[in-house]
Amino acid sequence: MTNRENFGSRAAVIMAMAGSAIGLGNIWRFPFIVGEYGGAAFILVYIVCCFLLSLPILLSESIIGRRTHQNTFGAMSTLAPGTHWKWLGLLTIVSPLIILSYYSVVGGWSFAYLIKACALQFKPENVEEVTGMFAAFSSSVWGPLACLLVFLGLTALIIFSGVKKGIEKFSKISMPVLFVLIVVIAVYSVTLPGAMDGVRYLVKPDFSKLSSDAFSAALGQSFFSLSLGVGTMLIYSSYVSKDENILVSGTGTALFDMLFAILAGFAVMPAVFAAGIAPSSGPGLVFETLPYIFAKMGAGGQFLSAAVAILFFLTILVAALTSSISMMEVGVAYMVEEKGVSRTKATAGIFFLTLVLGILCSLSFGTLSGVKLLGNTIFNFCDRLCSNWLMTLGALMFSIFVGWKMDKAAVRDELTNGGTLKANSRMFPFIYFLIKYIAPLTIAAIFISGLLA
Ligand code: PFF
Fold it and tell me: If one looks up domain 10-452 in CATH, what number appears?
């Protein structure tokens, strides 16, 4: 492990981790989940979930990664040699690759929509035309496949360039740009006529609207959004140097991710209300309704609305890329460090593997829509398998591992840098309590209640 790369600075660590966290989960998934589960009250539950349950998992992954400076499989084998914990290492190599396959399909759509926005294809005259555009595009064969190829190709290109020149450089440049873009779009959105109802929807909680499954939805969303349970935070933390404060980088990542999700809510919901569209329109919200809204609401004329649409889909594309690279890195690090394969070959291998599954996921919107796995299309099956099962299972196992299997002194050592970080030392008992008891018990309870519901 002597010539293993590390991130160059604290800013680089936070930008890379926030880059993994901030993605389609924030811009595409968060607004429609908030819409489905009733707005502000759900956001409050989500925030509590992030800090009490997801942050301890993020820290657990960071502790394992930074302790060992190894890929997920190597890390588990080192910390618990000769035990079944290595399966957790393997699980976290498989799950990000499945996620990457279907995530890249949506990443490809955002690339396609960026091109459509540049070609001024969103016309305000006809709502059916714009909303129908999505169904027609996603169910076609070659367009989505070409975009999938571009998206995965870009991901592989960044990963191929390495940790410092690829991941760090791309994240450090793109994350600040993303924040500026999302703020610009949110400002545009809240100033549209009729947008205030959308703002109220996001800030005025109505707890009567909270259903019992809102808790498992909030937990699932926060795991997905923070890229937890699949080893991406572990692998990024394995590139963090020993003098970095992982409590600060972890908390910073969670805060940025939450801030971005809320900003995305303000970019999407006020526009949705302004156009008189139901906030609970589901996954199509971003791709079906927003292009119409942008076209229709172009208060400053066609060019302003086209510019906003371009910025919006550019934001989604870049945010998706900073996440997809983290998924690919888990498998690449494993191949390089455990199998002795060169980085180029490992990247190419993972690229082709995910491309094949990605093609199947993409075709499941059209040609292969009749192929059902346990009643789901291939895309939905992969999504359900990962976000409902594998991520939760992985997250649960990471907290159990750190809370119950790892030596407490080693955990303290990682979180406090050998006792030198005084504030961390004071907070350690509370954080350890969250990792050992609160996170696993609550996650298990929500998981089981979701199964029984
Ligand atoms: N956190 C990413 C998002 O919100 O879009 C999704 C994600 C990234 C999930 C990495 C899983 C993962 F390993």
Answer: 1.20.1740.10
